[in-house]
Amino acid sequence: MTDLDQLSPREQRREMRRSQTYKAFLSSLGTIGQMNEEDAERAAVSVLCVLEQRLFGEEAAHLEAQLPSKLRELLLRCERHMGKPASKFGKEDFIEMVSEDLGVDAFEAEKEIRAVFAAVREQVSEGEIEDVMGQLPADLRELWRLAH
To answer: The organism sits in which domain of life (predicted)?
Structure first.
């Protein structure tokens, strides 16, 4: 018997929708970034964790609210920024943090950042995209804006 079998039919449907939404996000990211599902998940968590370290106030929570709930759960466990205040850094530092986290070179890290940003842009409202861009320095804004 699986964990899903122990849920009520309504809870089972909700859990299946959550899984489908998350799988669709990973599939989209995988297509955009030409990566498998496991690499897409690692890239999404790494990039979004670093992005959240750069966002001030409630902006990280606002962004997360529009992401698939299973992705939000992974971000809650991101140890790198737990309890730390947001800090200011630019594109080069962003790329370096993702590069170190994923164990890839800067070129590959930037490629994966662009793919994650593009997949996230498909998930969130234009207003949220603008809010995030408003908190980023010009070089990072350009990376977010040109994500595709």
So the answer is: Bacteria
Along the 148 residues of the chain, how does pLDDT read in single tens digits?
556 567 787 777 777 777 788 899 999 999 999 999 999 999 999 999 999 888 888 888 899 899 998 888 877 756 665 666 778 899 999 999 999 999 999 999 999 999 999 999 998 999 998 999 899 999 998 887 765 4
Q: Which residue has the tokens 């009520």?
A: 8
Please give the model's pTM, rounded to 2 decimal places: 0.84
83 dihedral zone (left: phi>0; alpha: psi -120 to 50; beta): left
Looking at the chain, list the stretches that DSSP marks H as alpha helix, in order from N- to C-terminal side: 9-33, 37-54, 59-65, 69-76, 91-102, 106-123, 126-135, 138-145
Domain boundaries, the chain: 8-145
Query: Which DSSP state fits 67?
Result: S
CATH architecture, domain defined by 8-145: Orthogonal Bundle (1.10)
Q: Provide φ and ψ at 71, rounded to 5°.
A: -70, -40
